[in-house]
């Protein structure tokens, strides 16, 4: 079983591994410099005491949840809650920065009613290319954060915290406005109905999230946001759930060999199907079938 490492800053071991207290309150660095040190790939990891904000302006970037990658539409704001598994692949012309802030410090900066919006179990991605005044303001504030950290003028830490607070509040407000409008909710419902039809038609083909987003005329980030708002899961999670539902049904209600079931679900490698099924259910396919043999038709 692969172990996901925990860091303060990626790739750096802390001096006191036993302490859960953060070693610093605020850190900002260039994505280009950090990713170049690691061959342009930040492997899946998590942070025990820190919340991260990435402002990725240009180049190409892929986000990983530890199982799969999907490409991000740039420019964007990426928010990584404490303890959330995440990784990235960047092109060698990437531009942007990552700000790491102690979660305890962030909690003192934001109003109590806003914290739940940032305490989700998954990485949140906010596209900044939709032309909205709110997102244009956020983009400008994030650029100012990077400039302030680089210059280190008197009072820079306080100003960065103020800019960060304002940018997060604007982002949360904009997201709320986008989902609250009745006409937007109706449009999103139609999109989700269409997504369900597409998934039913193509889930055995193991298409990437980008395929479904293109079919709906959306970015992967926007599509994931709509689904998260409605069902609290990502498209990747939806596709995995659909495959598992079908696999469970075949294991219980048919006598087909595991290899045949795997092939029917688009897995050419039975061993990979077995690992996927065990990761999702905690049991290997054979064990799941035995456990549910009393439900099998006589």
Short note summarizing the structure:
The protein is an alpha+beta fold and 298 residues long.
Description:
The chain is of the alpha+beta class. It has three domains: 175 residues, Regulatory protein AraC (Jelly Rolls, Sandwich), CATH 2.60.120.280; 56 residues; 56 residues, Arc Repressor Mutant, subunit A (Orthogonal Bundle), CATH 1.10.10. Helix content is 49%, strand content 17%. The chain contains twelve helices and ten strands. The strands form two sheets. A five-stranded mixed β-sheet has the order 1-3-8-5-6. Strand 5 and strand 6 form a beta hairpin. It is globular, with a radius of gyration of 21 Å. The mean pLDDT is 85.
Name a few traits of the molecule:
alpha+beta, five-stranded antiparallel beta sheet, 12 helices, 298 residues
- Euclidean distance between termini CA atoms: 37 Å
The ordered string of helix (H) and strand (E) elements is EEHEEEEEEEHHEHHHHHHHHH
The CATH superfamily title of the largest domain: Regulatory protein AraC
Structural class: alpha+beta
Determine and state the CATH class of the largest domain: Mainly Beta
Number of domains: 3
Low-pLDDT regions: none
Order of adjacent strands in the largest pleated sheet: 1-3-8-5-6
Range of helix content = 40-55%
Radius of gyration over C-alpha positions, nearest whole angstrom: 21 Å
Q: Tally the helices: what do you get?
A: 12
Report the major sheet: 5 strands, mixed
Mean pLDDT: 85
> What fraction strand?
15-25%
In CATH, the architecture of the largest domain is Sandwich
According to CATH, the fold-level topology of the largest domain is Jelly Rolls
Number of strands: 10
Quick one: overall form?
A: globular
């Amino acid at each position: 079983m692969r172990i996901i490492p925990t860091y303060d800053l990626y790739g750096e071991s802390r001096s006191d591994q036993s302490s859960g207290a953060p070693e610093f309150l605020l850190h900002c660095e260039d994505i280009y410099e950090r990713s170049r040190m690691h061959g342009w790939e930040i492997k899946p990891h998590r942070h025990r005491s820190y919340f991260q904000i990435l402002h990725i302006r240009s180049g190409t970037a892929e986000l990983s949840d530890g199982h799969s990658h999907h490409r991000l539409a740039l420019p964007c704001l990426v928010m990584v809650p404490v303890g959330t598994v995440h990784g990235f692949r960047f092109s060698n012309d990437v531009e942007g920065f990552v700000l790491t802030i102690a979660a305890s410090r962030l909690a003192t900066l934001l109003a109590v009613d806003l914290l739940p919006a940032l305490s989700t179990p998954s990485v949140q991605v906010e596209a900044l290319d939709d032309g909205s005044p709110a997102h244009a303001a956020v983009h400008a504030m994030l650029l100012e954060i990077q400039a302030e950290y680089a210059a280190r003028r008197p009072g820079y830490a306080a100003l960065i915290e103020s800019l960060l607070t304002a940018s997060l509040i604007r982002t949360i407000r904009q997201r709320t406005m986008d989902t609250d409008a009745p006409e937007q909710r109706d449009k999103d419902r139609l999109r989700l109905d269409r997504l369900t039809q597409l998934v039913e038609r193509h889930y055995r083909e193991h298409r990437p999230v980008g395929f479904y987003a293109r079919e709906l005329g959306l970015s992967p980030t926007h599509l994931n946001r709509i689904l998260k708002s409605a069902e609290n899961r990502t498209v990747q999670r939806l596709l995995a759930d659909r495959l598992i539902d079908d696999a469970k049904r075949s294991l219980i209600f048919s006598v087909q060999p595991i290899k045949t079931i795997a092939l029917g679900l688009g897995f050419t490698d039975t061993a990979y199907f077995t690992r996927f099924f065990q990761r999702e259910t905690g049991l290997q396919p054979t064990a799941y079938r035995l456990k549910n043999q009393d439900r099998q038709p006589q």
